[in-house]
Amino acid sequence: MNEGLIPRRYAKALYEVAVERNQAERLYQLMTCLEQQFEASPALEATLANPFVSESDKTALLRTAAGAVNADTAYNDFLKLLAQNRRLDFAPGICRAYTLLYRQARDIYRVHVVSAAPLSQDQETRLKKFIESHLKGASMEYSSAVDPQLIGGFVVNVDNERLDASVRQQLQQMRQHLIQ
Questions:
Q1: pLDDT value of residue 36
Q2: Is the dihedral of CA 12, 111, 135, 140 positive or negative?
């Protein structure tokens, strides 16, 4: 069976249950935290895939990694269902599918800006306003980083779109033109 299909189906069902219980936003927070944990620690996915780790340990690990509490009934019921169906190893894919589904339903874009040097508060504010004007009323989750290898300028990633206004990119383009 397609590994992308199973996570999407679970994520869709989870989203519907979370909306019914008015827990969709809280579940999104938990899934976002869990997604960050998967990115930060690849061993977490390996542990979920390990057949020698018990289902209860995997469930406890997923609760802790997400920062879930007893009041997070939709998340806890979701983990119980995954454990019963022996699908806990699909948690990373379901997590990514849920956050994507939530952002699509709420018209939220992930915006990540990488600049060659730290941006001043004024520059960052202007850049955010510029990006918001192009999102046509949608909201954004903004993050930024500094990469001196850009030499100058910045790179803006809005979900799967990329605007590269860096000096490094311009030098690479000039190099390609000279080679041709």
A1: 96
A2: positive
